[in-house]
Write a structure and sequence with these properties.
- By secondary structure, this protein is of the alpha+beta class.
- Helix content is 31%, strand content 28%.
- It has helices spanning 19-29, 49-56, 81-90; strands spanning 3-10, 32-37, 40-45, 65-70.
- The protein has a four-stranded antiparallel sheet, sandwiched between helices.
């Protein structure tokens, strides 16, 4: 059963090609996701946080930082109505 997660990151090595990181997040880790922020994703996944990091490790450097956490439906923020609709319809049960 998929759960909602938030992933945020800093990819700190200049000159690196991080297309594989983004592709892995969007295609291999998440079942549905939104990326309304430069360095963060809100998504659903069937994987554990350890499984997610294991999938990302081949594309990361020691200077990179990732934080992934399961989230609950207790939220607020400043987004457009269509963004809130997507989150409420796709991220939370």
């Amino acid at each position: 059963m998929s759960k909602p997660y938030m992933l945020t990151y800093d990819l700190n090595s200049p000159g690196q090609n991080y297309d594989e990181v983004i592709k892995t997040i969007e295609n291999d880790i998440s079942t549905v996701c939104c990326k309304y922020w430069e360095s963060s994703y809100l998504f659903r996944s069937n994987l554990t946080t350890k499984q997610m990091i294991d999938k990302l490790k081949p594309y990361l450097d020691k200077g990179d930082r990732f934080f992934i956490t399961e989230i609950v439906n207790n939220k607020t923020g400043w987004l457009t109505p269509s963004q809130w609709d997507f989150i409420n319809e796709n991220i939370y049960d």
